[in-house]
């Protein structure tokens, strides 16, 4: 999109705009490799408990305001594609 729109420039947050946890990311990786999720949780150290970001959510309003109207790829689809195409070396459509 940016290559097709040379008059648009800037720094843009890219994501879906949907809040997702790091556990969601871990589950997506397990699913992409065809394994049952095995996630162990540990207590958050008190020294960082109030400063830790428990989820990630991109504010894509600037990107949308610049004219980007295409749909975003879901976390699960992006992870599946990355694992299949880049880590396992096979086409994500297989």
**Strand count:** 2
What are the low-pLDDT stretches, counting only 5+ consecutive residues below 50? none
Number of helical segments with 4 or more residues: 4
In which range does the helix fraction lie?
25-40%
Strand content: under 5%
Query: Taking all residues together, what is the mean pLDDT?
Result: 90
Can you tell me the overall shape?
Answer: flat
Number of domains: 1
Give the N-terminus to C-terminus distance in angstroms. Answer: 27 Å
Structural class: mainly alpha
Oligomerization category of the chains in this entry: single chain
Q: Rg, please?
A: 17 Å
- How is the main sheet built? 2 strands, antiparallel
What is this structure's SSE topology?
Layout: E1 20-21, H1 22-32, H2 46-49, E2 55-56, H3 61-65, H4 75-87
Antiparallel strand pairs: 1-2
Helix pairs in contact: 1-4
Can you tell me about this structure?
By secondary structure, this protein is mainly alpha-helical. It contains 4 helices and 2 strands; from the N terminus they run βααβαα. The protein has a two-stranded antiparallel sheet with strand order 1-2. Helix 1 packs across helix 4 (75-87). The chain is flat. The mean pLDDT is 90.
Please give a quick description of this structure:
The protein is mainly alpha-helical and 94 residues long.
Salient structural properties:
flat; mainly alpha; 4 helices; 94 residues; two-stranded antiparallel sheet; single chain
């Amino acid at each position: 999109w940016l290559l097709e729109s040379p008059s648009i420039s800037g720094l843009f947050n890219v994501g879906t705009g949907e809040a997702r946890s790091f556990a969601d990311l871990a589950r997506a990786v397990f699913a992409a490799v065809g394994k049952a999720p095995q996630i162990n949780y540990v207590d958050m150290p008190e020294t960082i408990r109030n400063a830790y970001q428990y989820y990630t959510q991109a504010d894509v309003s600037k990107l949308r305001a610049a004219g980007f109207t295409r749909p975003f790829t879901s976390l699960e689809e992006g992870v599946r594609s990355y694992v299949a195409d880049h880590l396992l070396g096979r086409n994500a459509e297989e």
